[in-house]
Amino acid sequence: VSSRSRRAELGGDGCLPVSQTLLITRYDPARAEAEESLAITDMKELLGLPVIGVIPESKDVLTCTNLGTPIISMGDDHPAAGAYMDMVDRFLGNEKELRFVTPEPVSFFKRFFG
To answer: What is the pLDDT of residue 4?
Structure first.
């Protein structure tokens, strides 16, 4: 690691201190609830970083990557695109509640018919 980045960490020579935050991608709250993956609180505790965003699992992210199209172009109605937009807002200092951190309720028909 170069001394320039160390100076930035310390905020010397007119540099602003480096701020580290955690962006959680491909998050599935149902899997976290079933203890098949780490929960957000576990990740925060392990890494000691504030969470700036949670991006839900989405096949559309892979499709957009393969097409060379940003997922944000799908609009705020798309869960992953909206989550990325929320993350940018938080990075810019706006207060936004984390979305997609709790499992979607399963309907009766979904439970019955799978």
So the answer is: 60
pLDDT digits 0-9 by tens, 75-101: 989 999 999 999 999 999 999 999 999
| Predicted TM-score (pTM) of this structure | 0.77
Give the closest residue to 86 by CA, choosing from 23, 13, 10, 19: 23
